[in-house]
Amino acid sequence: MPATTPETTPADPTARAARSVLVTGANRGIGRAIAERFVAAGDRVATIVRSGGAPDGVLEVIGDVRDTASVDAAFTQVEAAHGPVEVLVANAGVTRDGLLMRMTDEDFADVIDVNLTGAFRVVRRASKGMIRLRRGRIVLISSVVGMYGSPGQVNYASSKSALVGMARSVTRELGGRGITANVVAPGFIDTDMTKALPEDRQQAYLGSIPAGRFGHADEVAAAVQFLASDDAAYVSGAVLPVDGGLGMGH
């Protein structure tokens, strides 16, 4: 029997073609871990960031989710390099914490504009290509705060909670076209922001988490990767908490 040559080797039935993946805000923290995980899986990954610092192997496009024209230009650049976006992870976010009575209109509006309206802008733009392809995965990065509430974060909690309504409305509109839209809600994750908290504050937070520890960014990335996979084709409009049990029942 002749030896098998590379030309006649059967294709691996489990192999998956590389996809065009866009993760907003992948220059640090959770977004960076998400982008790195898709790169490791062999996907073509891009990010939209306001400043540099994307992981190795990620196409970095400078843009601003607060501006529709900037979003459109960034998508055009990504599409030219990688093809239509098949997986969108809306991760870019900011905080402007402050107690309700002291929070300014600007502090509230700025957070909503990036975290909520920014997500809307990238979802709207990505949906055009996904509708033509008749397939797509949209994952919105929320927070346990959006389900649980947090003093001093009326703006942030409002923006993150609203992403649930966005994902479910997109599911109602586009679910019949092979497009899913889901939410991942991380809890307290071991990032530079968490490490900067005073030790007593960290201990107080740890005491409220049933798992007894902070999460890792890669654990959030794993949840995102699942929702973007073929295995999650029948999961849409869902909220997947990655919070060690902190937000149970919310």
Work out the count of structural domains. 1
Instruction: Return the string of H and E elements.
Output: EHEEHEHEHHEHHHE
Estimated helix fraction: 40-55%
What is the level 1 CATH name? Alpha Beta
Q: Reading side by side through the largest sheet, how are the strands ordered?
A: 3-2-1-4-5-6-7
Q: What is the alpha-carbon Rg in Å? A: 19 Å
Q: Report the biggest beta sheet as strand number plus sense, adding barrel if it closes.
A: 7 strands, parallel
Helix- and strand-based class? alpha/beta
Corresponding CATH superfamily:
NAD(P)-binding Rossmann-like Domain
Number of helices: 8
Indicate the low-confidence ranges by residue numbers.
1-5
Please provide the count of β strands. 7
Task: Determine the mean pLDDT.
Answer: 93
Q: What is the terminal separation in angstroms?
A: 63 Å
Strand content: 15-25%
Reported by name, the CATH topology is: Rossmann fold
Q: How would the global form be characterised?
A: globular
InterPro entries: KR_dom (IPR057326), NAD(P)-bd_dom_sf (IPR036291), SDR (IPR050259), SDR_fam (IPR002347)
Organism: Cellulomonas avistercoris
Domain Ketoreductase: 19-192
Pfam family, one: adh_short_C2
Report what the structure shows.
The protein is an alpha/beta fold and 250 residues long. It has a single domain (20-242), classed as 3-Layer(aba) Sandwich (Rossmann fold), CATH 3.40.50.720. It is 42% helix and 15% strand. The protein has a 7-stranded parallel beta sheet with strand order 3-2-1-4-5-6-7, sandwiched between helices. Helix 1 (29-40) links the parallel strand 1 (20-24) and strand 2. The longest helix has 29 residues, at 105-133. The model is unreliable at 1-5 (pLDDT under 50). This is 3-oxoacyl-ACP reductase FabG. It holds the Pfam family adh_short_C2.
